[in-house]
Amino acid sequence: MADAVAADDALAGPPSPPSPALPPPFQPPSPDTPMPDATPSAAETPNLPDTPASASADPETPFSDAALADASDADASGVAAPADDDGITNPLGGAMKHMALAPPPPPSKKSKKKNSNSVWTRPTSRKGKKKAKQPANSLAGSSSGANGRLPKPSSGEDELILTPAPRFAAELNDDAHDLPVLLSRVFKSDKVEVSDDRLTAGSSKGYRMVRATRGVATGAWYFEVKVLHLGSSGHTRLGWATNNADIHAPVGYDVFGFGYRDMDGSKVHKAWRAKYADQGYGEGDVLGFYIHLPDGELYEPKQPFLVHYKGLPFRAEAPKAAEQKTLDPVPGSEICYFKNGVCQGTAFVDIPGGRYYPAASMYTLPDQPNCEVRFNFGPNFELFPEDFGGRSVPQPMSDVPYRSYQLANEVPAENGSAEKTI
């Protein structure tokens, strides 16, 4: 009978709540609240490396999210997944918070698109294939056209090679029919100062060169130079040089110059000093410069004429002359120097063919006055030698005739060549 009464009591009312002395891990919802579908509580959440529990134990875990470990994380079952959640679904249902995603695999290299808009990846961009440089001597070797190459000048039936000429040399040529032989203001270094009468030159910026306006290629010729000022640190190298000599270097620096040195009277050619005179020269000395080129016109390179193309001057030369680097020597040619009318001996023999100009180079320290020399091209020399030792008596450089360059302007032609117009 007692068992029946107990059964009736169990069916009559709801079960009593648990004792407060033994609280459950989480407060159960009321009977009216529907239970979520198998959503685990925070106590049942596994201790993954990026959970708040592990963050408190190891705050330096790379994937820890300790900033989110607060009271709101105590019950993950009652919090809906935010919009920016990791998107990982709990196998038991619902969204899990703080779950670390595996790092995505590196993107595979995509092939470059042929029609890409990137200027750096297009085959025809700057970083594409480089165009082969054309040799300097081949500028005129091909006809002009769509390639934009220089026109091929023509002089009769011969083809000529275009090489860049010194800029403005043709326009600023400071020689003329009505002028005597003077020092050039064009063919000189910008560090060399020339006097108003164009006969005195000085420099204080290292060895620099200045040459005369006219040169000689055949016969025997002579000029004088008087040393006006050397100072305690001044030096000079004087002599002959062709128009190919480097004006930013002293006379005798290269194969195109033959110099006479003041310090010990040595001779200089191709930057090599050699024993020559017994002693040097100094302030107040008058130096004479003698050159003899018998039949030198046969060994002088053919004079190139200047062609203007797109506002710039070019030298037009025959291919053989352009390719020849070393000129043939003139048999029987000779250079010798004089000091105060006395010959110092033969300095150079069998010199290469060419047109030789009187030249001077000066040097002194920057804080010293300019080292200065004065030219005398004749015919009234101060100390003209009385005896040339059996050599041909020279002519003064003042007798050298004016010699102009042929100047050809760019003229369109049907065959794409520039015709020479004088």
Automatic annotation (TrEMBL):
SMART domains (UniProt xref): SPRY (SM00449)
Bias-annotated ranges (Low complexity): 1-13, 64-82, 136-148
Domain B30.2/SPRY positions: 161-349
Listed PANTHER family: SET1/ASH2 HISTONE METHYLTRANSFERASE COMPLEX SUBUNIT ASH2, SET1_ASH2 HISTONE METHYLTRANSFERASE COMPLEX SUBUNIT ASH2
Region (Disordered): 1-159
Highest taxon in the source lineage: Eukaryota
Organism classification: Eukaryota, Viridiplantae, Streptophyta, Embryophyta, Tracheophyta
Nucleus listed as a keyword: yes
Compartment(s): Nucleus
Signal peptide range: none
Name of the protein in question: B30.2/SPRY domain-containing protein
Compositionally skewed regions (Basic residues) per UniProt: 124-133
Organism: Oryza punctata
Pro residues bias (residue ranges): 14-34
